[in-house]
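Notes from the pairing session

We agreed to fold both candidates in a single pass and log them together. This is the raw record for the first candidate, unedited. Please don't reformat it; downstream parsing expects exactly this layout.

Candidate A
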Amino acid sequence: FFGITTTGRRFAYIVDISGSMEGSRLERAKEELRKSIRGLPDYAKFLVVFYNSDVVVPPDQETWQTARTSNVRRFIRWLDKLIAEKGTQPFPAFSRGFAEQERPDVIFFMTDGEITSMRPDQVSAMNRGGLSTVINTIAFGDKSSQDLLKQIAQDSGGVYRFVSVRGRP
């Protein structure tokens, strides 16, 4: 996802769809998400949680979906209609991602703006107990939350990446 590769069986994506993502930013995020999910082996499971001021989950994704072709196609059809709006509140999306009985092996967390409603220690607290989830973080076109994202990635053994809006990762 945005050039970050990793291993696992359960992949969660927490993706910003706030108003600042409108237009080409959202289209680029959708493109990367399509590519990443299509690239999963069919035995892998995925969960996608979008956030703005609310948590937005695809209607048929009440729990993990296997990356079989039919599930991926259904998700992509829904994804194509997704719009960007509202504010940037990712903490409830993390809560939703960690609420699954089977924890994610990997989380990809992407934002394009400043996050003031969440601290790294809050994410670390959710990531305790049992096997820790690796959290890879992506600052998409805006480094204003770089310190937060770097700390979340470091605390979980993940990777931080800045991605230019114009260029490729």
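Candidate B (folded immediately after A)
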Amino acid sequence: MGSFPQTGYEGPLVLRLPASARMLGMANAGVSSNDADALFYSPGMLTQARGAAMSVQQYGANATAGSFASVQTIGSLSVGIGAQLLRFSTNPSDWAREAQQGAARLSDGGTESASSSAFTVGLGRVVKGFRLGAAVKYAEERLGNTSDGVVALDLGMNKALGPATLAIAVQNIGAGPDMYFVNGPLPTRLTVGFGGGLFPIWEKWDIGMQSQLSVERDGFVRPAGGVELGYVPVEGVALVMRSGLRLPREPDEPLATAGLGVTVDRFSVDWAVEPMRGGRPVVHRIGLRLK
């Protein structure tokens, strides 16, 4: 199949979308996350992550995204497995035109069903005080009867600094897909972040934060960060409010996100909202976590 010169399109699309309801509430700044879905942000965090996490997000009436991740300990290794899936409908010619322009955003509906998926396996281990991790993923883009799949690699490293963690990750290393004469690279990015989960600040109140700076393949620099404030009325129960800011890249992407969470013992329910711009509907994501 022939191809146009390399364009602004980077895919598969699912690799550019949020993968966690909790992290989306903090502008999707997740490189220092310690939940199971840290697998999708930095495999270096697998040594701190346990349990399982799943979430689902609706983009209007014609597109739905979801993710699932689980992390377990086997000897000295932390092993994570996960999947991300996006289903939507589109017109292939419209998708190709937007891809050539560098948007490749989700369609408001079309004549063909489409999907974007990624299946990931990651390993993490502590070496001389540094938490190291690597993950291999198979990602596929499918539009109508046309599809292409690629293999990508993620690498991560982090170091505990007091109650927080300094983390670095390189994601989506590999060759990109070739779809409808549009050949583009994977959304490779280098991210450095600093953050931590909730810790006490005063009586029944806890606070946490996430911050990161990403440099994407084309040189686009993207800062993002957020905070979460937790209220603990009784031991084992927490009510959490979240908010975050990020530098938008797409015309319809919001500057700010927000979210809420409820934790009871080992179970957490999370909700996040993205108030999309450009006339797009407000987007919600719901998630469950088990520690």
